[in-house]
Amino acid sequence: MEKVCIFLVFFCPQTQQPPLTCIIMSKGTVVLAYSGGLDTSCILVWLKEEGYDVITYLANIGQVEDFDAAKKKAESLGAKKVFIEDLRAEFVEEFIWPSVQASAIYEDRYLLGTSVARPCIARRQIQIARQEGAQYVSHGATGKGNDQIRFELTCYALYPEIIAPWRIPEFYNRFVGRKDLMEYAEKHGIPVPVTPKAPWSMDANLMHISYESGILENPKSHAPADLYLMTKNPEDAPNSPDVLEIEFKKGVPIKVTHVKEGKSKDTPLDIFSYLNEMGGRHGVGRIDIVENRFIGMKSRGIYETPGGTILYHAHLDIETFTMDREVRRIKQGLGVKFAEMLYNGFWYSPECEFVRHCIDKSQESVEGKVQLSVFKGQVYILGRESPKSLYNEELVSMDVQGDYDPCDASGFIKINSYLGTVPSKGLRVSGKLYHVNSICRSVDDAVA
Q: Which residue has the higher pLDDT, 436 or 183?
């Protein structure tokens, strides 16, 4: 551990001689991922108490935040420097778009809005640490959640030293609950919210808002109607749909157009923001799930992902329209693996990089336009077109024979029928050969 010595010299007012020299040992500089909230504000002051110089870093990834107020607060609490970084554009282009290409969805329902933000935030934190010559990085993620893993796996991949206060006994034994944090804040002059805190935890970014903990920990309890901030209640949504056309190239949206109004957006940040607006207006993208955390426990999460939900359905449609069947089967498996690695915090691992390259390769032909409507909480696909379509309208038509000879189906059916018939030596099921006698014995044992 590198230590910095600070010498304070006190002079005698009569003799001007230095009778006493006081040495204060600094433990080094730490870059703290800072939100401006109670937890990270207390961590900032605590780190200073422990002898660290603290640089705070706040990432703008689309959350509603008073960044100027957060900066002033950090400075008033003794932060050596304050960095406010606008990462919205790179968040969309470098993190959300690859997730769209992968059709990334965790346990069939969660579109990974929190997970995909963490490597974006942590990467810039590491860049600042290197730029400022800091010895450590730190965060305020709790010791029971996934975020500590996501932040730290990124940090360990890019930078070696991490301070995680919520896993340091001296810290978590001192701050058992919110009451202890409030008392500490009052003692050290840390401003605290004057409005009552919502009885749940919330995390917001451009991709989504997540809600968990507090009253939501009871999996049976219904979410309060005033919980949702990003989407309108589908029951109160407009009584007429909005029809959108989304254009893709290499699996990435390059343009969105409101069909009736003729309004278009064609930059990544504008496209995603507009889809959030349209989806939120119609109550699209709400889910309430119990998921499996990487550390082993189950947790309840409520999520709003309006723009991400629209893109998930649109991309899935154009991909199926343009991609070879066998390629897509392999790509589906890669998408599941990618979602797991993203959820678990392995974005910067070599295996995740490899999977991203494979998925990117699979998207070369995923090009075209999808028209859809958003209405009362749902996304409805209306039609699609593509210069790289693999759809043959004449071949599939029930009214035109085309190049297809129905007699050819006889051989296809007969060959496949062997999967379920009993040849002389055994029964072949799903590609595996079972001897008839052993199957009969198993049946007899089961009956007995």
A: 183
